[in-house]
Design a protein that fits this description.
heterodimer; A: alpha/beta; FAD/NAD(P)-binding domain; B: 125 residues; mainly alpha; 6% strand; globular
């Protein structure tokens, strides 16, 4: 069932067993898993079914740290959430990403990778991916030249990616959600406050406000905040009428540890003998979505050098080319063009492919030169955080203020990656690696083109100890017995690869928990 | 803030600290005809290799002459695992990478031997 919340009377109270706030990848996944169960599910979406600039403006915020993309462009505020413009890149987090690493402060998840494996496998089909296989040997596709470089290396390996079409949750699952007998979707239902009991131990309701000032409430036995990472933190912090510092913030953790993936050009590769080294498995094929590899630091090398997890893509080009970071390369115009291309039947070259940042090699035959573009986890940093701005949005809610900060470990890790890669390329006679100037400078300095991947993680992190994290291993807020968090906000560490596959896996895991404990 | 590559030449800091052979001249081997022809030439071309060589020379005052460079290359060649059997330059370059005998010149992660070869090339060009 679906209702536009704008049609409801002021003071209306919605009642359900479970209230999910946010209908993006996490919220829709959880709702679908609970479809056709005895549970009465309320699914609240702030936006409608289409992009609306007025609604999107609610996500505008301040940037007071390192340069960052405008917040209102980084996440989408309508049914389907940010899957409405994601690029579809999927890969798994590695076991080391979940481990406590003594050289990475605040690292360690309360769950292991093995616990996520069955959920990763289930997430594959939701995201329209292939089989749950991420070994390069599984993706030769009958081509003996699709083999990894540095196959014998203990320091560098090839990490595989699969590509979602990309799945637009708002399109793919709209009918299923609307037609589910036990799910009631409310659009244009912006939650502006979470209200708990006097003891601050149980959430009783959420307050929903419209642009016209009309307010309704949703009551439920249990709640899931399934917004994006900035919004989840913002909502808890702004729920400060009962607790001055915001709900679930007894330990001053909400909003902290905001993390991104560092996606920046950082090196060059020249092959010793292009005729003998195949790079086919690293080729990016947007149109066919052929799985591809990236070069990655092995857990052994990461431990030895005490660095973060990271990969790099291998893009043909020429020395001296200007290579752009993700923030420079991708913008909303390009993503809108990509969506229009999808909607019009995918005819011709995808806009993202034609805008490929690496120009075609000018030489004939197999390219000799390649640009190496980093993709690296950002170390968890309590000073990298979301707080509330003094400015309020059209609904009277304080806007988010982002203070994105790095540590020296972030830069040292990336530089070390290329040093290790360079040594391995030399040892095997495969080629040589050049590290860009900016990466050789002071570890506290970052260039103007510093870039994330529009991947917001952290802010409501998961930990066994309430002093270390806001939610427990079940994604339930430690201090509130019926409030859960869905989405990337719970990630204690960022991993090296894009977060959506892991997000959906965690949402499936949370849905199973909610079903089992209903 | 960016650092000029020409000012940046540092030994590898990978934890496998480089133990570069000393600067002192040793022996009186006949100069290897291939000493100034690094394999890098095929990969990067003469202009880039010359630039690499010049940057290496600028950063290593003790290795600014052809004799000093040849001597340093020769010394490490004779640090062969098999006594009296000097390694080929290709093997020496590979072993440099294995043993962490690497340097950063113009941002390139190079074996110390090929960096010296590049310097010889720059001197001879």
């Amino acid at each position: 069932m679906h209702t536009d919340a704008r049609t409801l009377d002021n003071g209306t109270v919605l009642q359900g067993d479970l209230c999910i706030v946010g209908a993006g990848a996490a919220g829709i996944t959880i709702a679908r898993e609970l479809a056709n169960t005895p549970l009465k599910v309320i699914l609240l979406e702030g936006g409608g079914f289409e992009f609306d600039p007025k609604m999107q403006d609610l996500y505008r915020g301040e940037n007071v740290g390192l340069p960052y993309f405008p917040l209102q462009a980084a996440a989408l505020h309508y049914f389907g959430g940010t899957t409405n413009h994601w690029a579809g890149w999927c890969s798994t987090y590695e076991p080391i990403d979940f481990e406590k690493r003594d050289w990475v402060p605040y690292s360690g998840w309360p769950i292991r990778r093995a616990e996520l494996d069955p959920f990763y496998a289930r997430a594959q089909s939701i995201l329209d991916l292939g089989p749950y296989r991420y070994d390069p040997a599984d993706w030769k596709n009958g081509d003996d030249e699709r083999v990894p470089m540095l196959g014998d290396s203990k320091a560098i390996y090839t990490k595989m990616w699969q590509f979602s079409p990309p799945t637009r949750f708002g399109t793919k699952f709209r009918d299923e959600i609307v037609n589910a007998p036990n799910i009631h979707l409310y659009t244009n239902a912006n939650v502006v406050e979470v209200i708990a009991n006097d003891a601050l131990s149980t959430v009783q309701s959420v307050r929903i406000r419209g642009f016209d000032g009309k307010e309704i409430r949703a009551r439920a036995k249990r709640f899931v905040l399934a917004c994006h990472s900035i919004q989840n933190a913002r909502l808890l912090l702004a729920s400060n009428h009962q607790a001055r510092e915001g709900l679930a913030n007894e330990n001053d953790l909400v909003g902290r540890f905001f993390m991104e993936h560092l996606e920046m050009p950082a090196g060059e590769l020249v092959l010793a003998d292009p005729a003998k080294t195949s790079t086919k498995i690293y080729a990016l094929d947007f149109a066919e979505r052929t799985p591809r590899g990236e070069l990655a630091i092995s857990p052994t090398a990461a431990r030895e050098h005490r660095v973060l997890n990271g990969t790099c893509s291998v893009e043909p080009g020429n020395l001296g080319d200007e290579v752009k970071s993700t923030f420079q390369f991708l913008d909303t115009t390009l993503m809108n063009a990509q969506r229009a291309w999808e909607k019009s039947g995918r005819k011709g070259t995808p806009p993202m492919a034609s805008a490929e940042q690496a120009p075609a090699p000018r030489t004939e035959g197999v390219p000799r030169f390649y640009h190496l573009v980093s993709r690296q986890e950002q170390s968890p940093n309590p000073d990298s955080r979301i707080t509330l701005s003094a400015e309020k949005d059209a609904l009277g809610m304080p806007r988010a203020k982002l203070n994105w900060q790095m540590t020296e470990l972030d830069k040292r890790s990336m530089r070390t990656f290329y040093q290790v890669l360079g040594a391995e390329m030399g040892r095997t006679g495969t080629g040589r690696v050049q590290i860009h100037d900016w990466l050789l400078s002071d570890d506290k300095a970052w260039p103007s083109f510093i870039s994330g991947g529009w991947h917001h993680m952290g802010t409501v992190r998961m930990a066994t100890d309430p002093r270390q994290g806001v939610v427990n291993a079940d994604c339930r807020v430690h201090s509130l017995n019926n409030l859960y968090i869905g989405g990337c906000a719970v990630y204690p560490t960022a991993g090296a690869v894009n977060p959506t596959l892991t997000l959906v896996a965690l949402a499936l895991r949370l849905a199973d928990h909610l079903k089992a404990t209903a | 803030m960016q650092l000029d590559r020409r000012r940046f030449l540092q030994l590898s800091t990978l934890g496998v600290a480089a133990t570069i052979v000393g600067d002192a001249c040793v022996g009186s081997d006949r100069p290897d005809v291939a000493d100034d022809r690094p394999n890098l030439l095929e990969m990067l071309g003469p202009d880039r290799v010359r630039m690499i060589g010049k940057q290496y020379l600028a950063s290593k005052p003790a290795e600014t002459t052809a004799d000093a460079l040849r001597s340093a290359i020769s010394k490490s060649r004779h640090e062969s695992r098999v006594p009296l059997m000097p390694r080929s330059l290709d093997d020496q370059v590979r072993e440099d990478f294995i043993n962490g005998h690497t340097v950063l010149v113009d941002g390139w992660v190079l074996s110390i031997t090929e960096a010296r070869q590049s310097a010889l090339f720059a001197l001879s060009a």
